[in-house]
Design a protein that fits this description.
It is a single chain. The chain is α/β, with parallel strands linked by helices. It is 42% helix and 16% strand. The strands form two sheets. A 15-stranded mixed beta sheet has the order 1-2-3-4-5-6-7-8-9-10-11-13-15-16-17. A two-stranded parallel ribbon has the order 12-14. Strand 7, helix 16 and strand 8 form a beta-alpha-beta unit. Helix 7 packs across helix 10.
Length: 503
């Protein structure tokens, strides 16, 4: 015989504050949280918030865009979206093409794909025109109702700019009014020519904005970069300089960043800075703006990410390159350093080591990405220069070969390292063992690893390349490697046991 629960048990769930339920669900898998909408009203709201946390509007035939147009047009759902990605180029293109008779068949095919209609082409063309107009209005309505968005990503490829310049302005004015107070992160991947359309009008401040990511590129190379930047991006950044915590400026093209960096107002809260700068030569690449910006913010920066993209010219000697003033700035609070040198000569692997070692006393994370890989001697020089370190938690770099002696050196030098990412081409072995005959190098590596164990090493996450071996030999290597690393729980994004089973 069943009994009704006591009154205290029946009323306890409604009495639990929403914040407590929110804290509880933070420990649960996201998939389970999304299914808990039937438990009570608090969990219903949490489940719905997670289900509709992200939305994306891109190419109209993509499933993510279809879902966005069919669901997020509902104001109740739109208000739950926290992260929104808008790439309106395809829609803008269709809005322009619907006026051209030669595109009628294409529009009919698009509508057929969108709604699955099977009817005469002439009727489909009429419906296609109507459908595109409706889609346009729905996008504007969605933008008006995104009242809780904290992250916005806007993207546009150069080929779509001409269409966007005619239809794009209608998307953004309502959006800035809707989420201007809640937006914290803004990612702009649009041409310089489109910034005046995308950004809020001058004087319109996003009061919660603390993270800005901008990728700078052009559609027309005969226009002046500085004029476009000074008219749009510079005043926008300076309007928000007091509250920015993270700033990223990426220039894959030869767009001059120095004038922009020189004219930026000091950012008292800035903690993270990323710059992607093209390099032609010391004479043709202006790095003075970068130096000035880094000196102004050197005492407060905790995360620094520098990417230099080479343009295949006559390279200076590494010691000359790293003696430039922008590389001589000290950062007493720097914790995370990431350096990317693209297409630089082999000599730069050794040349970069003295530059890195100047930050050894504060670094908790070091990511080095070079066009060339470190040799064994260079690897030992770098690790020995950084050691001993009880604060380094993450290391990522590329080697020619990786062996048991390298693992021993890392475990000894960085006892509290938690995440290790090592890309390598082949295995290295100890000289004495390497002289053995009749054994493949990977077999010697496995023998060496079976003789080692690092139970005190704090390493939890390991990322290594896919081993170019037969399935059987690969499994042997995996088992030997992890037998020496008992505390590693995740390898290449998989759990320990899953990684061992996955061939």
């Amino acid at each position: 015989m069943s009994h009704a629960p006591p009154m205290a048990a029946r009323t306890i769930m409604p009495d639990v504050p929403y914040e407590v339920w929110r804290h509880i669900t933070d420990f649960l898998p996201l998939k389970e949280v999304k299914q808990m909408y039937g438990v009570n009203r608090s969990l219903f709201n949490i489940a719905m918030d997670e289900r509709y946390r992200t939305a994306r509007l891109d190419y109209l035939l993509q499933e993510s865009t279809k879902r966005c147009l069919s669901r997020v047009v509902d104001p109740g759902i739109a208000s739950r979206v926290r992260s929104f990605e808008l790439r309106p180029g395809h829609l803008c293109k269709l809005l322009q093409e619907k006026k051209t008779e030669s595109r009628q068949k294409k529009l009919a095919n698009i509508l057929r794909a969108l709604v699955g209609l099977r009817t005469k082409e002439g009727i489909l063309v009429t419906r296609a025109r109507s459908s595109i107009e409706i889609t346009h209005r729905n996008v504007i309505q969605i933008m008006q109702n995104l009242t809780s968005v904290t992250t916005l990503r806007v993207g546009l490829v150069p080929e779509e700019y001409l269409h966007f310049s005619h239809a794009g302005p209608s998307f953004f004015a309502d959006g800035w009014r809707a989420f201007g107070r809640t937006l914290k992160e803004l990612h702009l991947d649009v041409p310089l020519e489109a910034l005046h359309i995308v950004l809020p009008k001058h004087g319109c401040k996003l009061t919660s904005l603390d993270t800005l990511v901008v990728r700078l590129f052009r559609v027309y190379h005969n226009l002046d970069d500085d004029d476009m930047i000074n008219a749009t991006l510079l005043p926008f950044i300076n309007l928000h300089h007091e509250h920015l915590v993270s700033l990223s400026l990426e220039s894959p093209e030869s767009i001059r960043l120095s004038p922009l960096l020189r004219n930026l107002n000091p950012m008292p809260l800035l903690r993270s800075f990323r710059v992607q700068q093209s390099f032609v030569s010391l004479d043709q690449t202006d790095l003075t703006g970068l130096e000035q910006f880094l000196r102004v913010h050197r005492r407060q920066l905790q995360h620094l990410d520098i990417a230099i993209l080479s343009r295949y010219t006559n390279y200076p000697a590494p010691n000359v390159f790293f003696s430039q003033p922008c590389f001589q700035v000290s950062f007493p609070a720097l914790k995370e350093l990431s350096i990317f040198l693209c297409h630089f000569p082999t000599s730069y692997t050794a040349g970069i080591i003295p530059h890195i070692l100047q930050f050894k006393n504060t670094l908790t994370s070091l990511v080095i990405t070079l066009y060339q890989r470190f040799s064994q001697e260079e690897f030992v020089l770098l690790v020995s220069g950084l050691a001993p370190s009880d604060i380094l938690r993450e290391l990522k770099m590329d080697l020619f070969a990786f062996g048991s002696q390298d693992i021993c050196l890392l475990a000894k030098s960085f006892p509290k390292l938690e995440t290790l990412t090592i890309q390598f081409i082949g295995f290295a072995t100890n000289q004495a063992v390497g002289a053995w005959t009749g054994l493949a190098i990977f077999e010697i590596f496995c023998m060496e690893m079976r003789q080692l164990s690092f139970p005190q090493w704090k390493l939890r996450t390991l990322n290594i390349p896919s081993l170019a071996l037969t399935s059987r030999d690969r499994q042997t290597c995996k088992a030997a490697l992890l037998s020496a690393l008992p505390n590693v729980m995740t390898v290449n994004g998989r759990g320990r046991e899953e990684y061992l089973m996955f061939s």
